[in-house]
Amino acid sequence: MKILLRTNRFYLTLLNKTYSTALKSVTTVQVNGKEYRADDYTNITPKITSYINRNLHLKKDNPLSLVRQRIVNYFYASFTHGGNPVFSVYDNLSPIVSTRQNFDDLLIPEDHPSRAKSDCYYINASVLLRAHMTAHQSELLRSGLDNFLMIGDVYRRDEIDSTHFPVFHQVDAVRLQRKEHLFVNHPDLNIFEPNYDPTNPHTFTNSISDPSKQSCHTLEATKLMEGQLKNHLIGMVKVLFGENIKYRWVDAYFPFTHPSWELEIYYENNWMEVLGCGIMRNEILANAGPTNSIAYAFGLGLERLAMALYKIPDIRLMWSTDDGFLSQFQDRDVNASIEYKPVSIYPHCTNDLSFWLPPTLTIDTFMSNDFYDLVRDIGGDVIEQVKLKDKFIHPKSKKHSLCYSIVYRHLERTLTQAEVNKVHEDIAAATVKAFNVAIR
Ligand code: DAH
């Protein structure tokens, strides 16, 4: 992809090159097929623009997508109404947003450092690449939603090292509760203090000077929401990292929530921050529509979770299109525990294995995941990939047959064909024994 900079007299096409000097004469910038007015805020580069539409979070074999699916599954399964999920998911919203969406709607002050040109990729003074998924909170509330997840790519100017990249992915969420739901067993309790009139929110000055709650909310409503929020998030972290994960809550500040917290988990001898959350500022709800509710919100980064879960040492690997990387996450159960193995530079060997299934099995009932596990059990670390190559039903005998390609690669040395053949024979023998198949 390229950025087209148009001046009054000519078009300037720039590829992989910053254009601060060219900017002086530039009047428009083209991003993602659309033309925008350029101004002295414009700092988006062609390289950054090239990441738009990669949608790693939606690519089936990308680790970010596996973590996304696990989080979505958790929220789908934990909150249902009449068998239907309560949360709706927005994972395809355009990353090009207004400064109103990214900042003003979220009560981020004019002079807040997160607005700085040095921190964001601006298309112009009023349009930028979203710096967080929270940017969509108000528009989705305005459209009438009450429980939703927003998932996508976010852009921040930052150093590039093994844990930082200017583009990363976030999951943000909002859960709104009305009095009838929050206090099902206590109809006498209220969300709002008596001096706040939800039908006339703009006559009230909401204060956050009390660390325990916003002045419009009752302490009961705030504490109940805090309890639910923390339980839901701990549940999610346990689904990802296991029941025994060590965690702690840390008080935090965000302009759009009060009170606010960060959740840290103990990982590889360090406390690692995994998310920010809190009770949504009532002004945001009042401006966007729902006036009779209290809500919690949270936001987390997918890269950090994926790197910890799968032991991926460098954030840049997420962008890899190399088969040696992606194949490690291919065709895997989303809940499988996967440990990333650095891609070897040594050549690979591919051997095929074809077999007839016994009459008790068909090409549709054969459990390929069981077979993959067996291959890994026998072959160990030299197995790089197992792919289904062919399915076949014999026209006369009606016997069913499958063919798999097994890719062998050692991480530290070149394998000989003789060694590979030996492992391959062992796998064939174990397959015959385990599934009662006949090698073709
Ligand atoms: N937007 C924040 C960030 O990018 C994370 C966050 C914190 C999101 C609290 C929320 C929230 O929705 O309630 O750092």
From TrEMBL:
Q: Can you give the residue ranges of the FDX-ACB domain?
A: 344-440
MF (Gene Ontology) = ATP binding; phenylalanine-tRNA ligase activity; tRNA binding
Q: Where is the Aminoacyl-transfer RNA synthetases class-II family profile domain?
A: 67-358
- GO BP terms: phenylalanyl-tRNA aminoacylation
Q: Name one Pfam family in it.
A: tRNA-synt_2d
Give compartment(s).
Mitochondrion matrix
EC annotation from Swiss-Prot or TrEMBL: 6.1.1.20
**GO CC terms, sorted:** mitochondrial matrix
* Keyword field: Aminoacyl-tRNA synthetase, ATP-binding, Ligase, Mitochondrion, Nucleotide-binding, Protein biosynthesis, Transit peptide
Q: Which reaction does this enzyme catalyse, per its entry?
A: tRNA(Phe) + L-phenylalanine + ATP = L-phenylalanyl-tRNA(Phe) + AMP + diphosphate + H(+)
Where does this chain mainly localize?
A: mitochondrion
Q: Which PANTHER family match?
A: PHENYLALANINE--TRNA LIGASE, MITOCHONDRIAL, PHENYLALANYL-TRNA SYNTHETASE
NCBIfam families the UniProt entry points to:
pheS_mito (TIGR00469)
Q: Which family does it belong to?
A: Belongs to the class-II aminoacyl-tRNA synthetase family.
List the protein's name.
Answer: phenylalanine--tRNA ligase
- The gene from which this protein is expressed is LOC112045462
